[in-house]
What does this fold into?
Amino acid sequence: MIICFTGIDGSGKTVQAEKLVERLNAAGHPAVYAWTGGRSYITRPLIWLAKRLLRAPKLASSGTATEPKGAPDKGAQYRSYLSSTRRLFKNKLVANIWRQISLIEHTGEILVSVVPHVLRGRIVVCDRYIHDSTIGMAVLAGVDASALPRLLRLPALYPIPRPAQWFLIDVPADVAFHRRDDVVDVAFLEQRIPLYHAAAQTLGMDVIDGTPTPDHIADVIWERVKPLLRAVPKAALRKS
It folds into this structure.
C-alpha cells in the first residue's frame, strides 16, 4: 500500500514520514520512505529560464535564500515574481500545457520510485505526492481554492496508484515559516494553506494538527494507520 504525507513547507511531513517508516518496520511490516515531490526532468531548463526572466528570488547552492529569510527585498521579489507568473498563466493554453507536463513528470517519478516497491509487497510512505504539483501550479497561476477540486481531477487520469491513506499535516503559516531557512516570504506559505485544505476535503485526507511535539503527532498517526495494517498479513509481506 501507499501512505502519503502532504502539507506546506515546514509542516513536519518529512519527519512524520520517516518516523512512520521506522515504526512500520519495527512492527514487522516492510516499509520504505520515498520523496515524491515532483522532480523537474523535462521542464528544468524552462523553469530556469522563466525564473531568470521573471526575476524569481535567488537561492544559494545549499537551497537557502541568499539573504536572510523574511528580508524585505526577498519578500518583494517573491511577490513580484508571483505577479509575473500569474500574468503568464492567464493564457489558458500555456497554463494547461505546463500543468500537463508537470503531471507527466510527477507520474514518471512515482512509477520509478514507488511502484516497484509496491509490487514487492512493501508499504511505501511518500513525502508528497502528485497532487502537490497541482497545488504548486495553482499558486503560480493564482487559482482560487474554490476552483481547485476541478484541477484535482486531472491526476486521476494518469496511471499511478491511489494512496490507501493520506495525511495533511496542518500548521499555521507563521509556525512553518520559523521552522525553515529556505522560505523567502511567509506569503509563500499563506497562499498554499487554503489550497491544501481544499485538497484535503476533496480527496478525503486525514488532517493532523502539526503543532504538538513530533512524538505526539507520530502516536496519533500510528493509531490511524493501525486499522489499515489488519488487512495486510505480515507473512505475505515477509516474502519480499
In short: Strands lie at 2-6, 31-35, 123-127, 165-170, 206-209. The chain is about 55% helix and 10% strand.
